[in-house]
Give the backbone structure.
Amino acid sequence: MTLVVGLGNPTQAYATTRHNIGFMVIDALIADQPTTSISKPQFKGELYKTSQILFLKPLTYMNLSGESVRAVCDYFKPENVVVIHDDLDLELGVVRFKTGGGHGGHNGLKSVDQHIGSEYFRVRLGIGKPVSKDAVVSHVLQPFRQEEHACLKKVIEHAKNAITALQNSSPAEVTAAFTCKKGMCAS
């Protein structure tokens, strides 16, 4: 079984923010196939399943995401963990993948690393970087601009297709087939 985690923050206040792109992909995945909700308070998140995959949206807020991931891993013992997250170092439209590595200052990844280690497959979705380092928090917590919505829709669909491909392909094969280094939304 594979656990696919989308990082984000709960509540409507954060639903359309850049930091919630992981939640957006999970929402697209569960809308696209028959899933069953198996959420329980002990999982600290919304958990859905198909016969082969668990989909998790931690409800602990970003900085404590690892608590939810750990609870689900302890209960279900998945063979593979995939984490979908926003990446400041990539422009919107860029999609990259990697297994393991550092958290790059991303508090959600830092929390996941603390709870399950860092050797999981990552789906890195670019959200762009603010001009000033002082503006990082406000940048990740702001909604996507109207003119970015068409690109965002492409990114979510692309990430959804990559996750779906993981059911029959290795992480290396998915990386080769779905990496978008230059971005899919360049004008």
